[in-house]
């Protein structure tokens, strides 16, 4: 199947003037994702996830926060030693001990963060902006002196005065040649318009690559991430299934599929997304909601008669992209809303062929069953109903003995 047959391109994009996206993905499932309440990944879990991210073509993997524990540090070190194409990054506060831990892990990039918002300065650090910036500078100098590449990350950037951000980023660029400056929407306050404005302002100010790290407290993490990319952000932060602190982060599967369908970026192997999502569900104990984009159980499930009938002729009538593109499966469900044409298509597709009167009898039974039980019916149940209908039309009377339970 050709690329163009796998999804419908958003042709409205042709009318919009935006610069071609120059992006990379930094997946933070192993760090922010693990900060989801109740989630602890084992060494095997982390390696399995990192392996898949690497083989999908994700450019940067944030492997952890080494000072959290000796075990965490060992795992980050092991991931960094795998020789992946993905570069490995780890988190560090603006203290030397954290940088020492990153050095022990031999990571490619260390992400040194401070918050510069009044809220965090006053209630978290109890220190001034100047004092915190001083700590960051000292730590960054120490890291670069030891050969580490540095991302200078502004936590709570979306609630930080923009001039303060500009000043800090400019100084880090000039004095220490940091490799990235990072904007974190730590509490998920941004929307696409304000994200675009914030990133554009920083893009005009510095030459250093910009990272964007979005949280989903208002359900806008993916949209904000893409708005940031349109405004010039280079590195987009994601997590598998969107897990992360509170409402989570921008989800890898949504961002990768949107990049492909909307912006034509097709270098990531999206066919592994469903498998990776299921793996992270199993390891984290968090199953995405059934209506979650891309990887939810209903992402390719159809019941309504009009939809199923059209899908049987051409799936793109009601699917933006085909399940194969993300390694998923289509599921046609028989239920209350199923029409005759759709039912005929479904039973043909599972190897049955009914006469017109049998089909009408079957659809009556399907509606009674599903309305009584308020549920769709499974394939096995459908096959039982087909057998019933055939016997009844042969003998000319309803069987009544065996009831299909659903
Ligand atoms: Mn975060």
Explain what the structure shows.
With 406 residues, the chain is of the alpha/beta class. The chain folds into 2 domains: 15-284, Aldolase class I (TIM Barrel, Alpha-Beta Barrel), CATH 3.20.20.70; 301-395, no CATH class. The chain contains 14 helices and 10 strands. The chain has helices at residues 43-56, 70-80, 96-105, 118-125, 129-145, 162-176, 192-205, 221-230, 252-263, 273-284, 305-313, 340-349, 356-373, 379-395, and strands at 24-27, 60-64, 87-93, 109-115, 149-155, 180-185, 209-214, 235-238, 301-302, 331-332. An 8-stranded parallel β-barrel has the order 1-2-3-4-5-6-7-8, surrounded by 7 helices. Helix 6 links the parallel strand 5 (149-155) and strand 6. Helix 13 (356-373) crosses helix 14 (379-395). It is elongated, with a radius of gyration of 26 Å. The model is unreliable at 399-406 (pLDDT under 50). It binds manganese (II) ion.
């Amino acid at each position: 199947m050709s690329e163009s047959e796998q999804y419908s391109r958003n042709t409205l994009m042709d009318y919009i003037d935006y610069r071609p996206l120059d992006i990379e993905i930094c997946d933070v499932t192993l760090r922010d994702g693990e900060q989801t309440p109740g989630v602890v990944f084992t060494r095997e879990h982390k390696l399995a996830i990192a392996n898949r991210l690497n083989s999908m073509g994700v450019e940067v993997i944030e492997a952890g926060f080494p000072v959290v524990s000796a075990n965490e540090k060992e795992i980050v070190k092991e991931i960094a030693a795998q020789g992946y194409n993905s570069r490995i990054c780890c988190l560090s506060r603006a203290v030397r001990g954290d940088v020492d831990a990153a050095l022990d892990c031999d990571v490619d990039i260390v992400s040194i963060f401070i918050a510069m918002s009044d809220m965090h300065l006053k209630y978290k650090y109890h220190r001034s902006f100047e004092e915190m910036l001083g700590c960051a500078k000292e730590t960054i100098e120490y890291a670069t002196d030891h050969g580490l590449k540095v991302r200078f990350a502004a936590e709570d950037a979306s609630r930080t005065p923009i001039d303060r951000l500009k000043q800090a980023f400019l100084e880090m660029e000039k004095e220490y040649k940091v490799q990235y400056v990072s904007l974190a929407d730590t509490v998920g306050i941004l929307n696409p318009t304000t994200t675009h404005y914030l990133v554009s302002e920083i893009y005009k100010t510095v030459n250093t690559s910009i990272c964007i790290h979005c949280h989903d407290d208002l359900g806008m993490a993916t949209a904000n991430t893409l708005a940031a990319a349109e405004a010039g952000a280079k590195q987009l932060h994601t997590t598998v299934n969107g897990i992360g602190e509170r409402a989570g982060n921008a989800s890898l599967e949504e961002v990768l599929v949107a990049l492909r369908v909307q912006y034509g970026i097709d270098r990531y192997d999206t066919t592994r997304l469903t498998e990776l999502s299921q793996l992270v569900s199993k390891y984290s104990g968090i199953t995405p909601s059934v209506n979650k984009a891309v990887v939810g159980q209903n992402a390719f499930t159809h019941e309504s008669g009009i939809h199923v009938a059209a899908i049987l002729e051409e799936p793109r009538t009601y699917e933006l992209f085909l399940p194969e593109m993300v390694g998923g499966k289509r599921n046609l469900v028989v239920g209350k809303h199923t029409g005759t044409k759709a039912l005929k298509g479904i039973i043909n597709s599972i190897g049955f062929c009914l006469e017109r009167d049998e089909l009408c009898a079957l659809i009556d039974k399907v509606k009674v069953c599903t309305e009584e039980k308020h549920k769709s019916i499974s394939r096995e149940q459908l096959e039982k109903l087909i057998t019933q209908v055939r016997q009844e039309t042969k003998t000319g009377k309803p069987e009544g003995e065996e009831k299909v339970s659903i």
